[in-house]
């Protein structure tokens, strides 16, 4: 169950990063509120996950989910442009996250 909490925490990482961009420097109050809620939920679910798993495992996976998810959100929502080589490195990041999970033994 701690893995599910970690994935949820990572997804809320994407939520708060995306809504922070949409808040335009915290000038749009609704997106500012969503950012704070997303950040709080991300931290909450991370704190639950980290009770049952090593920090050295949970933290890089959490940040990796947030990083890859934010890249995808940036491309889809904001039209960010990425070179093919950048996508190679995004794929390597995703492979690394999966590799950490597979080799962790938990």
Automatic annotation (TrEMBL):
One of its GO terms (molecular function) is transmembrane transporter activity. It comes from the Bacteria. It comes from Companilactobacillus farciminis. Pfam families: Multi_Drug_Res. This is Supressor protein SugE. It is a multi-pass membrane protein. Belongs to the drug/metabolite transporter (DMT) superfamily. Small multidrug resistance (SMR) (TC 2.A.7.1) family. The chain crosses the membrane at residues 33-50, 57-79, 85-103. InterPro entries: EmrE-like, Small_drug/metabolite_transptr, Small_multidrug_res. SUPFAM superfamilies: Multidrug resistance efflux transporter EmrE (SSF103481). PANTHER family: GUANIDINIUM EXPORTER (PTHR30561:SF0), SMR FAMILY PROTON-DEPENDENT DRUG EFFLUX TRANSPORTER SUGE (PTHR30561). The lineage of its organism: Bacteria, Bacillati, Bacillota, Bacilli, Lactobacillales.
């Amino acid at each position: 169950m701690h893995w599910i909490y970690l994935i949820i925490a990572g997804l809320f990482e994407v939520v708060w990063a995306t809504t922070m961009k949409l808040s335009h420097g915290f000038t749009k109050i609704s997106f500012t509120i969503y950012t704070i809620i997303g950040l709080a939920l991300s931290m909450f679910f991370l704190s639950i996950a980290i009770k049952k798993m090593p920090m050295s495992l949970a933290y890089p996976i959490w940040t990796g989910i947030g990083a890859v998810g934010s890249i995808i959100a940036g491309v889809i929502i904001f039209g960010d442009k990425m070179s093919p080589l950048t996508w190679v490195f995004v794929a390597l990041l995703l492979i690394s996250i999966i590799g950490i999970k597979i080799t962790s033994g938990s």
